[in-house]
Amino acid sequence: MAKTLRRLVKSIALTAAVAAVGLTTTAPASAADVSSYVVGGTRATIAETPWVVYLATTSGGQFCGGTLVKADKVVTAAHCVTGRSAASTRVVWNREDKQSTAGTVAAVSRIWVHPGYTTATAGYDVAVLTLTAGITSDYLPLATPEDTDLYAEGTQATVLGWGTTCSGCSTSRYLLKATVPVTSDTTCRTAYAQYRNTSMVCAGRPEGGVDTCQGDSGGPMVAGGKLIGATSWGRGCALANYPGVYARIAPYYDVLTAQIGS
Ligand code: ARG
């Protein structure tokens, strides 16, 4: 298992390196062109998903996604922000096109990482950023422990992000979304020995083709109008029988609410 993990980490690092070397992002001529080279995604608008944000460095480079869960609170993945300072982190809202200057760039005053977090594959992959000012009142509620139906096999979940459009590709210039079915615990456990249904939830079609990918981490997985997951990890992207793994939000409802306020 340690070997598999190392290989996984290596492949993630390699993918990141390839993405960083940056083949220049080829801009699609129109929204209609996108689906042909996205991991099964299509363009999304901020108007329909006003709570989606991306995390950026002070020089503007996007590195993860996130979700507004209060006017001034963002839920993301712990692995996105662990070891980062609040001062070096920005939250970008209302900017579908990363090459534009649209929307709001918010400063971060505090980063809370779940104290149980070590690595994404061990669970606890959740974090809360506090912004120096509120952005919008159009934020998304967290799934609660009562929302078991939202985690049932086959629930159609929406995932969003500016991550890579295939394993090893460059990240997307535009916000993309896709719909993926929640998988059963058995399916996810078969794919991944590290799967824990107390801290993770998997989604993806058995045949693959639609998935989140590098750079989407921390971004929203939404069902029933609630945040049910945060993009966390997976083997490659969009591979058959290897669903994407998301941090499961409901088990962290109390601990997250303590950070967010009710
Ligand atoms: N770890 C990746 C990130 O930091 C997310 C990977 C998601 N992978 C997947 N197959 N769904 O952006």
From TrEMBL:
This chain belongs to the protein called Serine protease
What Pfam families does this protein's entry cite? Trypsin
The secretion signal range is 1-31
GO BP field: proteolysis
Is the Membrane keyword given for this protein? no
Taxonomically, the superkingdom here is Bacteria
> Entry's Gene3D superfamilies?
Trypsin-like serine proteases
Q: Which GO terms describe its molecular function?
A: serine-type endopeptidase activity
Every copy of the Peptidase S1 domain together lies at 38-261
Q: Which UniProt keywords apply?
A: Disulfide bond, Hydrolase, Protease, Serine protease, Signal
Family listed: Belongs to the peptidase S1 family.
SMART domains this protein is in?
Answer: Tryp_SPc (SM00020)
